[in-house]
Amino acid sequence: MKRGMRLLVFPTALLLGSLVLIVAGGVGSSANDTTPLPVTPPQVATMAVNLQHEWPRERLLVGRVESRQSSDLGFEIGGTLTDLLVDEGDAVKAGQLLARVDSQRLQAAAAEVRARLAQSKARLAELEAGTRESILQQARARVELAKARLGLAQAADERNTNLFESAVISSQEYDQTTFGLAAAKAEVELAIWQLTELERGPRAEVIAAQQATVDSLERQVEQMAVDIGKTQLLAPYDGVVSRRMVDLGQVVGSGQMVLRLLEDGPVRVRLGIPPSLLTTLHANADALSIKGKNGNWPGTLVGVLPDRDAATRTRIALVESDSADLAPGDLVEVPLKTVVNETGIAVPVTALREGDRGLWSILVAKVGENNIATLESRPVFVLHTDGEQAIVRGALAQGERIVRGGMNRVTPGMQVTLIEGDVE
Asked: Most buried residue among 54, 66, 159, 215 by CB atoms closer than 10 A?
């Protein structure tokens, strides 16, 4: 028990001795140094307020890249797809055969029309050549034969007339003789008329009618050739096949889309632009820049469409570029530098302090003695910002010093030391 008491007394005595030393040291220090330590205000970087009545501004016009020509190709005449000669991604040349549908029915119809045309042309040639000499000789022979028969009929008529007057023959026999004479005369006239017509040749109206038949058949042959040509799908220009919508052996209808072709070469960017920027756009027509994900490319203004979008009230501008890195469908930006005629102050965005309800403020340094300043908060209205610099308007006077940054280290009412430039 006594040993335990001794162990407890020793730490207690040690603790009391330490407290005495601490108190003595504190009293001695107070007696020797009564001057408070100086407090140095923090350093802040400032800049002078410079009012500007106009300032540059970059407007970004957003647009989409598209081919100058994009065509959905199909057949004018439907049928079974017998040949499909290209696939997606293939480059083609203007006039190249891309696909073909079955044309057997049209080929057969065209052959029939060509045969009828040949027959009609032969008939026309016959008419234009006139009557052959052998036919004319036959006609002349028929005239001579008819005249001979007429002479025989006349002799019989004279003889029977005398016999009838002498009451040798009956009236019936006499009438037969008279009818035979009349028939012989008609036969002679008919033979002479036929010979005359043959000697004159075919009438002009007959030849004209046959010529019209030939012309009509020739037009049919041409139309059949056109229809057969429409069973072939040709590339209208140099380009790349971007889509294929059918398969070989499929029956396709007239006008059904088979392939989509994008023109190879320069591309266009379609931009929506406010009418107020049209003058600036035209002033920079030959020196535009197209900004994409992978870089910038030069562009040239090719035109502005006359109509205005009913919803956005913007006009459509077309900018062309030869860059092979721009692909149809890409979303790009075209920066346009303008000058805004409005009074404002250019400040770094780091100088802005966000307040309540979306308001912004700037700290103004009111300089006193020894370059020590007191910070005041001034509300401002942000006119424009590009992410690094902001144009503001507010209760700021020309030449006043404002804090450039470090808003997390300072507050209104704080005293600070002013320096130029940034604070490390």
From this structure: 66
